[in-house]
Amino acid sequence: MLISQNICNGYNLWSKSTVCKILHNSTYIGDVIGHTTTTINYKTRKRKRVPKDEWIIVHNMHEPIVSKQQFELAQKILKEHGTVRKRKHDNLFKRYGSLPDTVPQI
């Protein structure tokens, strides 16, 4: 679809993570979000994330690129689809089995 609209020329210009960030970013519907992190120590520049219920959100701050209905539909689809990660192995070395009893434990 993107190739037919000349947005992407067939090369991998849009990674999966980039598209995911765009779909979750409410800036595209005109919102501005602030106070998402706070400084723990200004000398070391250490920061921590602020809980979402404490974020400062200003709606309709600028003209939206995407309609609110389209954004909400995308959020609904993302929520239904979920983000399930399937691992081939529980442990990196699981396929090699356990160590023999003769190997000294560290």
What does this entry look like structurally?
By secondary structure, this protein is an alpha+beta fold. The protein has a domain at 25-80. 22% of the residues lie in helices and 14% in strands. The chain is extended. The termini are far apart.
Provide key terms for this protein.
106 residues, alpha+beta, two-stranded antiparallel sheet, two-stranded antiparallel ribbon, 2 helices, 4 strands, 14% strand
Q: How many H/I helical runs?
A: 2
Extended strand count: 4
The helix content is 10-25%
Largest beta-sheet details? 2 strands, antiparallel
Distance between the termini: 56 Å
Q: Give the helix/strand class.
A: alpha+beta
Strand order of the largest sheet: 1-4
Query: Which H/E pattern describes the elements?
Result: HEEEEH
Average pLDDT rating: 79
Computed over alpha carbons, the radius of gyration is 22 Å
Low-confidence stretches: none
Shape: extended
How much beta, percentage-wise? 5-15%
Summarize the structure.
The chain is α+β, with helices and mostly antiparallel strands and about 110 residues long. The protein is about 20% helix and about 15% strand. Strands 1-4 form a two-stranded antiparallel ribbon.
Topology diagram in text:
Layout (H helix, E strand, L loop, with lengths): L15 H9 L7 E3 L2 E5 L4 E4 L6 E3 L9 H14 L25
Antiparallel strand pairs: 1-4, 2-3
